[in-house]
Design a protein that fits this description.
By secondary structure, this protein is an alpha/beta fold. The chain contains 13 helices and 13 strands.
């Protein structure tokens, strides 16, 4: 199916950045080199940047083993990301002609895209167009998302590090609240990313242990949010302790589908995939509790911190991200196209996992939610099954390479000149 003489590879990053996405890039690069490819190009800002002719030769930027180690420890997207939605393959032929013309000019054999749900939609469409046009270019997806909502895979690289950061941060918030109890009581609402899936918010329960009670309540978007029941529960909890910490997903919503964030937020930004910007959930709930209960409140929005915290990365996560990058390159090299690498869990204790490839058509535009039986009956916490699932993914540390007391990152010199 593929050429006897290997030509070149191109790799891109798309969607929300993570603390592990660049480890996957390092895995793609190393495996492409080991398998004898000539050049490994990197798209600047994904397929959108590619259409504008923006790309680099990664061999000119990752020259040493130290560069590769720095790349693994660098958060966000080294190549830059995008949220670009390709039209259907029969809707705008010019877009595809432009992309494939560039790929042929660069003599590309393998196209690797590191991303989440929307990125796999890109792989699906490009691989379908390649079949229609009789192109031998192979298109393979490499999973990435802190949301952990990709179908058919046990979990996604990026999630473990974000979960580790969330568990750590919530524990520190609880400790801070305990030390500053007030006579009227206080409630801190921690807003955590998650539009439709509550995997990240559920990870706040990792803070619970011998030295910490964990959050007092956890609300996931998988279930409808009852505002009155929430206020009543907070009022009852304050009768038992003076400092309350509640973790909520940014995407919690009422039974009619209204996001809580919309109730106190006038922001109308919508991305290329039709996703509304969700922010202000914690602020709205804090204002409501102050009015209804009269207690002190504090809204804490982890925001981009939870996906950029490479200083709190999980070693398991970084290693798996590197492995799936290599597996994606291997799959493309061996002739796969229209596929995505998935992680298959083999055991929890000791934790073991491997990789395989699945049809991207069964993954793109789908969402894997937290199972209902992993959420308590009253909908205000996660079960032990959830904790058993996530705890292996946060194990181990990856020490930053420190320079002058601050972590050193790998960057593209003269990056602005390339835009």
């Amino acid at each position: 199916m593929h050429n006897k003489v290997k030509r070149n590879v191109i790799v891109g990053q798309s969607g929300g950045p993570t603390a592990a996405i660049n480890s996957s890039l390092a895995g793609v690069f190393r495996t492409a080199k080991d398998r004898g490819y000539n050049k490994i190009y990197g798209m600047l800002h994904g397929v959108q940047g590619l259409m504008e002719g923006r790309y680099i030769d990664l061999s000119e930027h990752i020259r040493t083993g130290l560069d590769a180690e720095l790349l693994k420890r660098t958060p966000s997207a080294y190549l830059g990301s995008c949220r670009y939605k390709l039209p259907g393959i029969y809707e705008d032929k010019e877009v595809y002609e432009k992309i494939f013309k560039i790929l042929e000019e660069l003599e590309i054999d393998c196209f690797i895209y590191i991303g989440g749900n929307d990125s796999m939609d890109t792989i699906k469409k490009l691989s379908d167009y390649a079949i229609v046009m009789g192109s031998n270019i192979r298109f393979v997806g490499c999973p990435k998302t802190i949301d952990n909502d990709l179908a058919l895979t046990d979990h996604t690289p990026g999630y473990g590090s974000a979960a580790k950061y969330i568990g750590t941060s919530v524990k520190e918030i609880i400790r801070d609240g305990w030390s500053l109890e007030t006579s009227h009581g206080q409630i801190m609402i921690v807003e955590i990313m998650g539009r439709n899936a509550g995997w990240l918010t559920g990870a706040s329960a990792l803070s619970k242990g011998e030295d910490c009670d964990g959050p007092d309540a956890i609300y996931l978007p998988e279930l409808d949010f009852d505002i009155k029941a929430f206020v009543d529960k907070c009022r009852e909890m304050l009768k038992k302790k003076a400092s309350i910490v509640v973790a909520v997903s940014e995407g919690i919503h009422t039974a009619d589908g209204t996001y809580i964030s919309e109730m106190g937020n006038t922001t109308e930004y919508v991305d290329a995939f039709g996703h509304k910007q969700l922010t202000g959930t914690a602020r709205y709930l804090c204002d409501l509790l102050s009015k209804e209960i009269g207690c002190k409140t504090r809204a804490i929005e982890l925001s981009t911190l939870q996906r950029a915290a490479s200083h709190c990365a999980s070693r398991v996560d970084i290693l798996e991200a590197y492995e799936v990058g290599g597996a994606a390159m291997k799959a493309a090299d061996e002739g796969d196209s229209g596929k995505m690498v998935v992680i298959k869990r083999l055991s929890d204790d000791p934790y073991q996992a491997g990789t395989e490839v699945k049809d991207v058509h069964k993954i793109a535009n789908d969402e894997r939610l937290v199972p209902r039986n992993w959420i308590t009956a009253d909908g205000t916490y996660v079960t032990n099954e959830f904790i058993t699932y996530v705890r292996p993914l946060i194990q181990g540390d990856v020490s930053p390479i420190m320079v002058d007391g601050i972590p050193r990152h790998l960057y593209v010199p003269g990056y602005q000149d390339l835009l």
